Amino acid sequence: MTTLRTLPKIRDSISFLYFDRCKVEQESKAIAIFTKQDKYVIPCASLSTLLLGPGTRITHAAIKTLAENACEVQWVGEDGFRFYSSGRSSSTSVQRLYHQAQTWANPQQRLTIVRKMYQFRFQEELSDQLTLQQIRGLEGVRVRTAYSRLSKATGVEWKGRNYKQDDWFDADPINRALSSANSYLYALCQAAVVSVGYSPALGFIHIGKPLSFIYDIADLYKAETSIPAAFEAVASAREASGMTVRQKCREKFSNYRLMQRIIQDVDKVLGYMSGDTEIPAVSFLWDDQVDWVEGGQDWAEET
Amino acid sequence: MVVFVLENVSPSLRGEMSRWLFEIKAGVFTGRISALVRDELWKYISEKVGNGSAILIYSTNNEQGFSARMLGSPSRTLEDIEGILLAKT
User: pTM, whole model, 2 decimals?
Assistant: First the structure.
């Protein structure tokens, strides 16, 4: 049942499922989650990422099945903060990674992509005359406007974004909800991006973090998904629980058709044209004169 | 599209169902009806189901692409987990 066509898979999949305090096991070729009283069977092949909260146990067989079905598994904290995540790339092709690395390493192409990433978030056309610094300024204004617009629409008081991670419980409910909602968006972007072979670390706008590229991609969608989700969650219940935030996130991801769009959007922003997806039977060796030679054979006589 | 699965119900209820839908297999009804008709049928079933059981599955615009309802005491039940329906046993 597993095919090489990764694109349709991401498009059709359910964005995420979150479970805590449970046991995850393989059961007759599927994945079952055992809570204290109940058992749930999980459609892992049509799930993009499984988020496991505190108090979860998972078996070796379950991880193997999840990996085979290209379902990312991420271990997260109570409020959605990933403290550990794992999984091999389920991609069968390295084309996208090569494209990403090439454009990343070329300052001119990189600037073009950075501009496209910013452009993606604006309704109107950004003039070519604008410098990157000016665009960054416009972006700051756009985000601030989005916060105050949502604050007005939902009646949630807004005193500015507070990122301080060490005083989590000092932050106001909306800031906590925003951090949680963003981390679910990150989880999803990571699952999607990794599944087709992009590197999470090679960020274009963000640099210096193992997940820089994920932050780049998540920023494309924050204003439509995680930010309104957080405001609506807090508006519906002052002490928005993780559950409300997740429910609102799912609603936004689904309404915005995130799973259908994400890979298409990333490919477009990066200027990646899907080429031949056929996987070579053998691996190749790089050659400085003829680009590549066939691997898996003895080249001793050539020297 | 909707699918109803009825088990252990009266012939008259099945007759009523087949006025609207196509009985593809004993007790399994499918077809395309409006949400209004679907809900009316479900209401009707819930009155007439007796000791039997009923399942309704229908396409809808959510992340999974479908939703479901259950009546009676089937061996597994559906639970909404933060917006996703999962079968619970």
Answer: 0.85
